[in-house]
């Protein structure tokens, strides 16, 4: 007669009661840690890993004749499942989600419970859509562990079919920074404005202080966001982003950009013929002795980005006052410019090619009152 079932039950009862235990294993990382009171003989019989670890008495730590051992790299949940398998010989992968089963696969391999590989892998591949939704986890596992050829082949085949899949996977925000940086550098299939959106999503997941609603971000929040994504900015192809998307989705975070880099982006929109049509700027003869129509186009583009105007908005430039003709006194300026709507003031720096100026979207007045405005700006151009 065979009594394997009775033997397994008695082992399992010993696990539940902790009676006669001779080893305490501290599992997990704070705050999720647990101390398991187990039996070193059973561990050594069932797991070649523990047989090796617990056979070297010189390495072991004892306290009151109890072995003290730590396993921080395996979660409490996963270790509990594996210990119950070691003692009772049963495991039910159907009860677990994908993340748990993949963690089980890795932990079982480390403990050299190789027979579980043949149970977990076939179960995982019953629903490949779930694997795709956890594609970042798959990438992480096959990068650090080469002993799962079926998972590795699945990763390679899927990424070849859809190079942008990691951006769309359900666990995207868990991606490691270096992996994401390499992905952004080599991205050719995912729209650049969508890459920007995913960077915002990733940054929010990395910081407890960032709300999912970016419109509620404070200046400090925007600074935190900028610090998180600063390494990615040089690798975003801003020239592939429409002016409208840039204005609506990137301009609110302009403070995180290096000023010279930000100006380069604006200059690109102004010099690129396709962007000209997108901005809807009318090329015209400018009545000015300081700027020409190209300068006017550039300034008009700056205004569109600052004010978030649509692409179909056009500008007409009307000369209000010329210092060399009308005089430079303050009263003359206000007589000609007050209550005329948005204005651009331009001066030429003597004996240089530099042009300085500023855009005021509000009416000038003589009331000596001050107003707060986010759309105004200063600029410097060269002839």
Automatic annotation (TrEMBL):
The BTB domain sits at: 21-95
- SUPFAM superfamilies xref list: POZ domain
User: Which residue range or ranges hold the TLDc domain?
Assistant: 289-383
What is the official name of this protein in its record? BTB domain-containing protein
Q: Which organism is it from?
A: Rhizophagus irregularis (strain DAOM 181602 / DAOM 197198 / MUCL 43194) (Arbuscular mycorrhizal fungus)
């Amino acid at each position: 007669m065979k009594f394997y079932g009775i033997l397994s039950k008695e082992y399992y009862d010993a696990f539940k009661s902790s009676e006669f235990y001779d080893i305490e294993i501290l599992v997990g990382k704070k705050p999720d840690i647990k101390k398991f009171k187990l039996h070193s003989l059973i561990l050594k019989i069932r797991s070649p890993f523990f047989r090796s670890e617990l056979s070297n008495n010189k390495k072991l730590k004892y306290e009151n004749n109890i072995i003290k051992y730590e396993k921080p790299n395996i979660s409490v949940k996963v270790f509990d499942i594996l210990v119950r398998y070691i003692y009772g010989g049963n495991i039910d992968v159907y009860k677990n989600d994908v993340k748990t089963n993949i963690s089980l696969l890795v932990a079982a391999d480390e403990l050299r419970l190789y027979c579980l590989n043949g149970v977990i892998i076939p179960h995982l591949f019953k629903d490949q859509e779930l694997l795709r939704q956890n594609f970042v986890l798959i990438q992480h596992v096959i990068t650090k562990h080469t002993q799962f050829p079926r998972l590795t082949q699945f990763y390679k085949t899927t990424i070849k079919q859809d190079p942008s899949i990691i951006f769309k996977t359900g666990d995207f925000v868990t991606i490691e920074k270096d992996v994401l940086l390499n992905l952004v550098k080599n991205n050719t299939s995912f729209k650049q404005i969508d890459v920007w959106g995913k960077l915002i999503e990733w940054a929010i997941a990395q910081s407890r202080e960032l709300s999912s609603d970016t419109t509620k971000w404070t200046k400090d929040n925007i600074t935190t966001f900028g610090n998180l994504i600063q390494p990615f900015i040089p690798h975003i192809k801003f020239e592939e982003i429409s002016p409208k998307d840039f204005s609506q989705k990137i301009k609110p975070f302009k403070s995180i950009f290096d000023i010279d880099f930000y100006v380069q982006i604006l200059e690109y929109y102004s010099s690129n013929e396709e962007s000209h049509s997108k901005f809807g700027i009318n090329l015209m003869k400018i009545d000015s002795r300081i700027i020409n129509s190209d300068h006017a186009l550039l300034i008009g583009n700056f205004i569109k980005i600052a004010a978030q105007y649509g692409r179909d908005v056009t500008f007409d430039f009307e000369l209000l006052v010329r210092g060399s003709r009308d005089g430079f006194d303050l009263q003359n300026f206000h007589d000609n410019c007050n209550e005329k709507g948005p204005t651009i003031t331009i001066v030429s720096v003597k004996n240089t090619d530099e042009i300085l100026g500023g855009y005021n979207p509000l009416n000038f007045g003589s009331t000596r009152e001050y107003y707060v405005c986010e759309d105004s700006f200063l600029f410097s151009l060269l002839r």
